[in-house]
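Section 5.1 Outputs to date
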Amino acid sequence: MHRVVVTGVGGLTALGHDWPSIRSELKAGRTGIRYMPEWEEFKDLNTKLAGPVKAFDRPSGYGRKQTRSMGPVALMATIAADKALQDAGLREDPILTSGRAGVASGSSSGSIGATEAFARYLQTGKISGVTSNSYVQMMGHTAPVNIALFFRMTGRIIPTSSACTSGSHGVGYAMEAIRHGKQDMMIGGGAEELSSADAAVFDTLFATSTRNDAPETTPAPYDRDRDGLVVGEGAVNLVLESLEHAQARGANILAEVVGYGTNSDGTHITQPNAETMAVAMRLALEDADLHPDRVGYVSGHGTATDRGDIAETEATREIFGRAVPISSMKSYFGHTLGACGSLEAWLAIEMMREGWFAPTVNLHNVDERCADLDYITGDGREIDTEYVMSNNFAFGGINTSLIFRRWDG
């Protein structure tokens, strides 16, 4: 059994593409939620809000030949992986092609543009618009295979297309592959490209926010006056290594991944279950051999939906038995679906390293139906803690919990 550490992170988000930029926005209480005028053409879509990624430049070496198999989601995932490898000092390292380095990553689905091309073919019988790369761009595991192809990686590929737990599954399965000696290094994370179709999914469930004229006020996780979630987009990948490998090359270690728990509800495809959510957290604590009192902060899933917020907070209170500090990063980025697990894990690590934790923005009056927890509001909170937990829950009743330890050498 090998200890596993995080040595690099890379991301593309609605608030910026590096931690200093994101931190500045968090400190100012600014969100990435925007009104989407281009969605006005969809007359039956109630929400017109989203959290699009800030504009970014393609790095050198991302020409047509290198990216023709990538739709937007795979491109963002690959650039995030590139940034993470550079951050870890492994961009040109022979480990990538050694067979001892792999990818555990995913998204809710592939790129919508390629899917639309096939839909037009089925409607009209005309193949125009469908190319030899269309299927590769639309398939559920387009992100990890394109990452591996771009960096010529020959180790394990673990696709994690599990909706809102794609990113957390990616980090968790990457950790397990290293812990059990199957790989020395893994890229783990998730991605999601923005599409009105994602918003429509939640619209049909009456779960989206419709504050189209006041995007700065929503979403509002855990708040009694919340009116639903907002979809977002992004891509975040972490570089994980065995402690031995990282120390041997003198890597800068950001945190240690000490616990991972995942399970399924086995009850309802879309309605959360507090009991099995709690089991996932307990599994992570047992995996880390850690008492709940040692965890000083919980990064909540916090989608700003009634049933989700209530079930999650009930489960959290059951496990911790106290008002543990908690906040939701979705209040800033929206629900980034396949990216949220790795995005929120990244932010939890960075906030733990700094000793400052961002509040849930737009949380003014905690819903009395939510459990008794220490909801961080206002200007955030200074907390000196050695351990943080990051939780995510997905359609299909999939639950994940990750625990990170601050690295002090």
